[in-house]
Design brief:
With about 375 residues, this protein is of the alpha/beta class. The chain is built from ten helices and 16 strands. The protein has a single domain, classed as Aldolase class I (TIM Barrel, Alpha-Beta Barrel), CATH 3.20.20. Helix 6 packs parallel to helix 7. The mean pLDDT is about 95.
């Protein structure tokens, strides 16, 4: 039998297989960032996957990106997610809510009340965001004052409380892809001289405090953390990424979280592959963490099987394959062909390219 189809236990959950739906921002929420009815259908269609991870959901009104992106800092947003949670549970699925803060990558043209995006330090991201009136450069962020950091930790705590009240089974902290947590982790973006800057231990402190706060809300066995040790796309990075992320993995082991989710692309050219001269870190991170480790990054079903067989991971999360193939485990079980994803509809629109991918006929 396929290794991907074997069951696995993560925290208190006996998952039916090792196929994980990666967190993907599909931008189908309404103007108030409340989940819409078709989002319930979208997640239910993918309920045969062992674990569903929601699209990244902002914890703060100043974490704002593309229109339709998810959030869970208001009661109405949590109520919308409660409908999603109820629907996927009725379909027999397990679902975690991913929480994040965009930090310096917030859209400056959509910030409320003319506020400036925040970060660890005043280092802007490289590149552009599609603003209200077209592409705009990322803004130079305002460094969070030392006494403001606790307030952001509290926002993560409150969002986790909202998600659990909405019925979500657990929480995934998004510490990857150059967002606020990673901006604190990496020395390219963290130039601080207070207790959140300088040494690796200090730069990891922000994430550690978020982990501790959310653990108090949901329990350590219902908490996972996502990291991307090789992400460089927006100009972020660290002078010693192996040391940094192995420290993160060891800290998460000590905190006893349920799983580690590592983005490390299976092939080059994705922005998530090791740069020249750097080794792949996922196997070492798995050993340092010592618990269930999910890998992500352009995996095919075949390369995912190889990763599991080699002991490089315990489960694999899929993005484009999960978008285009809502019945991915069944297709794997039956050695059936795969639908081709429509990239033009990945990040906006309605039902087209969202809930209209065909499933296999019953066997």
């Amino acid at each position: 039998m396929s290794l991907l189809l074997e069951p696995i236990r993560i925290g208190p959950f006996a998952l039916r297989n090792r196929v994980v739906m990666a967190p993907m921002q599909r931008a189908r929420n309404d103007a108030e960032r409340v989940p819409t009815d078709i989002m319930c259908q979208y997640y239910v269609q993918r309920a045969s996957m062992g674990l569903l991870i929601s699209e990244a959901s902002s914890v703060s009104p100043i974490s704002v990106g593309r229109p339709g992106a998810a959030a869970i800092f208001r009661d109405a947003q949590a109520a919308g997610w409660s409908r999603v949670a109820a629907a996927v549970h009725a379909a027999g699925a397990t679902m975690f809510q991913q929480l994040y803060h965009l930090g310096r990558k917030s859209d400056p043209s959509r910030m409320p009340a003319g506020e400036t995006p925040v970060s660890a330090s005043a280092v802007p991201a490289k590149g552009q965001v599609n603003g209200v009136n077209g592409p705009v450069e990322f803004a130079t962020p305002r460094p969070l004052a030392t006494d403001e950091v606790a307030g952001v930790v509290a926002q993560f705590r409150a969002a986790a409380r909202n998600a659990r009240a909405a019925g979500m089974d657990g929480i995934e902290i998004h510490g990857a892809n150059g967002y606020l947590i990673m901006q604190f982790l990496c020395d390219v973006t963290n130039k601080r001289t207070d207790r959140y800057g300088g040494s690796i231990a200090n730069r990891v402190r922000f994430l550690q405090e978020i982990v501790a706060a959310i653990t108090e809300e949901v329990g350590k066995d219902r908490l996972g953390v996502r990291i991307s040790p090789h992400f460089r796309t927006d100009g972020i990075g660290d002078s010693d990424a192996p040391a940094l992320f192995l420290h993160v993995a060891a800290m998460l082991k000590e905190q006893g979280v349920a799983y580690l989710h590592v983005i490390e692309a299976d092939h080059p050219g994705t922005g998530q592959s090791p740069p020249d001269g750097m080794r792949r870190l996922a196997p070492e991170l798995r050993r340092a963490f010592g618990g269930p480790t999910i890998v992500n990054g352009g995996y095919t079903l075949e390369s995912a099987e190889r990763a599991l067989a080699a002991g490089a991971a315990d489960a694999v999360s899929f993005a484009a394959l999960a978008i285009a193939n809502p019945d991915l485990p069944d297709r794997l079980r039956r050695s059936a062909g795969l639908n081709k994803p429509d990239q033009a509809t990945f990040y906006d629109g309605g039902a087209k390219g969202y809930i209209d991918y065909p499933a296999l006929a019953p066997a």
